[in-house]
Every structure is written in structure tokens, then in C-alpha cells.
Write a structure and sequence with these properties.
By secondary structure, this protein is of the alpha+beta class. The chain has 5 helices and 10 strands; from the N terminus they run βββαββαβαβαββαβ. Helix content is 31%, strand content 36%.
Length: 225
């Protein structure tokens, strides 16, 4: 398993897809937020919404991808330049997920606009698209993602259930167990930080009297419980 290139230990995204609608001067602004981990997923969302809302005038979009938010794109889709995609992207980038923390990523926002016949002007459009995304993010379920170090912990079949429960009770994330071999392989995930890894290894040694030697499997981004 490849190592992540990000230097940060955690970031925030959303769970699944979420929709929110507001009306401003008879124009409907339907915001669709979706978790996206690749540019292809982001673009597929836009394409799907173009088909679903085929009679809408605009399908403006913005996305932020990667633990370090290294990929950022926006599209005005026919609105005056800088009045839709850019403020949508800014709403994602400036969203605080905790006081003073702006780490929202792996998210695509699409705002579908049905024109209501009243021109909003450049300033009005910026506010409308920004507010549409901000309100949607306010209501969307957030998910914390943590970079975890993965281990396979061997255990005798007779002891595996007990050890798995004790690891969970000690705060270790248990991803599952493989009972197919001569020994059960418990898949455990620990925060990718020296202190957390040392604590896990010490705890494991205590629980098994030093009998379990875990195999390190690499690192992975995992949704926190």
C-alpha cells in the first residue's frame, strides 16, 4: 500500500451527497454537495446533474480535492466571469470545521440555477452563489478523516475475539479480522503519529504478554468514528 504524500494528519469532508435549495428574487439555487476523491468523480457529478436538471440555465461548480487541498477548480458555466464558481470555491475553502480551522476537502459543490426573470447584478450573483454553498455546507453531515497506520495483529482463534474487544476498548480502530488462516489476522489502525504508535505497541504487548508481533501494512486515510 502506498504512503500518502500529505504531511497533515487529518482533514474534514462530508458524508455522501447532500442537497439544499434557496430562492432569491424568484431564481432557484439548488446546491448539491458530494464527497469526491478524484477529479473524475467531481466531473461525473456535474455531468449527472446536467442531465437531471437539463432545463436549468446554469450548472456552476467548484471542487477541492486532496488532504492538502492541492486540487482546486471552479466553473461559472455562463454566468458573468467570477460571479459563480469563484465565490463557490471560496465558500468551501473558508469554511471553518472547528474554530480557526479551514480544512474542508474532497468535496464538490454544484449550484443549479433556474433563472427567475430578475437580474441580480454581479454583486448579487456573488452573494447568491456563495450563500447557497455556505448554507448547504452548514447543514451537511461532516466526516473527519485521519491518516492511520495499519497493522495486522496475529492471534490464536480461541483468543481473537477477546483481543479484538480489548483493542477496541483501548481506543484502537479495528477494521476487521481474517479467520481463514491458521491464525486470525486482526486489522488494526492507529493514528500515524509516533506517540500513538508507541502506545499501541505497548498496549498490544501488555494484552498478549509480548506474544503478538504485528505486521505493519502501511498507511491509509480512514473515516473517524
Amino acid at each position: 500500500m502506498s504512503e500518502p504524500t500529505a504531511s497533515i494528519p487529518c482533514y474534514t469532508t462530508i458524508s455522501g451527497e447532500y442537497r439544499h435549495e434557496i430562492e432569491i428574487k424568484r431564481s432557484r439555487f439548488i446546491t448539491v454537495l458530494s464527497r469526491s476523491e478524484t477529479e473524475e468523480q467531481a466531473r461525473d457529478l456535474v455531468a449527472g446533474l446536467r442531465r437531471e436538471f437539463h432545463d436549468a440555465r446554469h450548472h456552476c461548480s467548484a471542487f477541492v480535492l486532496g488532504p492538502e487541498r492541492s486540487m482546486q477548480r471552479s466553473n461559472d458555466d455562463g454566468e458573468p466571469s467570477g460571479t459563480a464558481g469563484a465565490p463557490m470555491l471560496e465558500a468551501l475553502l473558508r469554511r471553518e470545521t472547528a474554530p480557526g480551522v479551514t480544512d474542508l476537502s474532497d468535496i464538490t459543490a454544484v449550484v443549479v440555477r433556474y433563472f427567475g426573470g430578475v437580474l441580480l447584478g454581479a454583486g448579487g450573483l456573488v452573494r447568491a452563489y456563495s450563500d447557497s454553498v455556505s448554507q448547504a455546507v452548514d447543514s451537511a453531515p461532516a466526516v473527519r478523516r485521519r491518516r492511520m497506520r495499519l497493522y495486522a495483529v496475529p492471534a490464536p482463534h480461541a483468543d481473537a475475539g477477546r483481543l479484538e474487544n480489548e483493542l477496541r476498548s483501548a481506543g484502537t480502530v479495528v477494521l476487521g479480522s481474517d479467520y481463514s488462516g491458521p491464525a486470525v489476522q486482526i486489522r488494526a489502525a492507529v493514528d500515524d503519529a509516533p506517540g500513538a504508535v508507541t502506545g499501541f505497541l505497548d498496549q498490544l504487548a501488555s494484552l498478549t504478554a509480548g506474544g503478538a508481533v504485528p505486521e505493519q501494512l502501511g498507511t491509509k486515510w480512514v473515516d473517524a468514528a
